[in-house]
Amino acid sequence: MKQMKIKSPIVLLILIALYFSCNRHEQERPFAQLETTSIKVDESGLTAFAKVIYLPKGDPILDYGFMYDKTPVLQYIPDFNFDGIDVSLGNDFNGDIFSGRIEKGLVKGQKYYVRAFIRSEKWIAYGTAISFTSKGSSAISLEKLSPNDTIVPGDFLSVIGKNMGYDSRNVSVKLDNIDIPINSINDTVVTFLIPQFVKDESKITISNRFNDQKVNFVIPFIPAPEVTNIKPFEMADGDTMIIRGKYFSRISDWNRVNFSSNSRGKIIYADKEQIHFRMDAASPASGGPTFRIGVGLRKSDRVLFNYAPIEIHNFFPKEGANGDTLTILGQNFFTTPGVHVVSLEGVTWGWEVLESSNTQLKVLISEINLFPDVTMRTRRLRVSTNAGVTAFSEELFTYK
Prior knowledge:
With about 400 residues, the protein is mainly beta. The chain is built from 1 helix and 33 strands.
C-alpha cells in the first residue's frame, strides 16, 4: 500500500492549522457535555440514567439531576425543578454516570419528557430530552393531621403523609374549593394557615399539578372562644383589660371585642389564651355592660363587667348663673359627653355637658326655675350616667 503524500505546501499548512485549532478547542472547551442515556419505566415511576461526556476542570458542581414535564422544553430554574428536589441529586458529583428516581407526579397513560442536567456557577449543560408514557407513580397519601383535635383560625395545620411534593408552586391546597397559601412543604408534610372565616367541617383538598390523584379530608373541630377571667372587672376610658381564656386567635386583628353598648377600644395584644384590650371610649349600657369575643364566624358567651365609679374631686367656679360654664374635675368620666347628666342634688333635670374626658367635664349652666327660695339653690353637684352610675361633690355649688 502506497503512502499518501501531500505535495501542496498550502494544503499541508491548512491541515496543520486545523489540527492545532481542534486540539486547542478540546483543551479550552468552556462547557460540560452531557447525555441522557436511557430510562426504565415501571408502575411506581421512572428511573433515568445519564453520562457526562466532558466536564471542565476547576468549576465546582452546584447541582445535577433530572427534570421532567409534559413538554420537551425543559430548562433549569433554581428552586423550581419541576416538582423536583427528588430529581435533584445535590452537588456531590463523583464519576461519569449517574441515575435518578422519579416516583410522584406521573399520571398513568400520560406522555412525559425527561432530561438530565448538570450546572456550575458559570454554565449549565443538558442531556437530550427522552419521551416516555407513564405507567403511574406513587399517589399522595394522608397519614395524620397536626393538630388533629381542635384548631383555631390563625393556627397552622400540618398534613403529614407521602408524595406531597417539594415545591409550593406545584402543589395546590384548597379549602372548600378556595386556594389556600402554603406556608411550607416537603415530600411528607404540607403546612398552611387556617383562614379567619372558615366553616365547620370544611373540606381540604391537596393535589399536585402533575397528578390527577388528590387527597381530601375534613379540618379538625373549630371551637368558639371561651372567656374564663377578666382583670380589672371595672373599666374606665384608657384602662386596659386582660381577657383570659382559650380558643382565641394568635393573630390580633382576627379577634373582636363586641360590646352590648357603643363602647370602643383596641386590641393591643393577643395570643391563643389572652387578649389585652384598651378601652378608648366607654359607653354605658342599660342592664349592665357586657361583651363577647369573636373569632371568625364564632363568638363567646356574653361576659359581664362594670364601669369604674365616677369620682368628683373638684369644680370651679363655686357659683354660677345661666350661661356660665362649669368645669368639673374628677375620675372615670366617659369620653362621650351625652351620656352624662349634671345637675344639683335633688333635681332630675340636668345641664348640658359640652365636653368630656376621663378626668374632666365642661358643663353649660342653664336656667333653673325650681327654687323660688334663694337659700335652696346651694346644693351638692350630682353627676350621673344613663347607666345609673352616680357621684356627688363634697363641696356645695350655688346657682345664682
